[in-house]
Amino acid sequence: MNLTKNKYYFEALDHYPYSIPDCVEALNYALSYDPQDADSLCLMARVYSEILKDYNTAKAYFEEAMKNDVTSISIPHFYIKCLLYNEDYEEAEKLIAYSLTLKGINKADILFLRSILKERKGKIKKALKILSEVREHSFDEGMVYQLEDRKKFLKGKISRKKKKKA
């Protein structure tokens, strides 16, 4: 039974995000074999969050996925993004703090999301400071380039604020 569930999960993953009807159909099959499969629940949550923009339904799926696998390192990144989109900043902060305790999680990604959270709360200088910490946990050039672009963007926001005040 587990092989069949995995077959449908991988089929759904293969279809995401290019063929959502096929993805959802495969996910429904996967969840019919194992309604508590954290990976399938996470992917269904991503469909609701990233494609349909139904953040409350997505949160319900993410919560169920986390409940079924609290040590998953693949769920928090997407769940935090959903919380940020839905402006659930307190929940996002708690999930970020928890996620950073998980062994094997990409700390650079989670800290990057913390920086975005601070920016959304209007704490741009704190967001910039966090980006320095992200760099310490980055192990690929892509992330380093992304950090440099993000720093420029945030510094531009600071200079625009100063110009408005003057």
From TrEMBL:
The protein's matches in SUPFAM superfamilies, at most eight in alphabetical order, are given as: TPR-like
Task: Determine the domain of life of the protein's source.
Answer: Bacteria
The protein's matches in InterPro entries, at most eight in alphabetical order, are given as: TPR-like_helical_dom_sf
What is the protein name for this chain?
Answer: Tetratricopeptide repeat protein
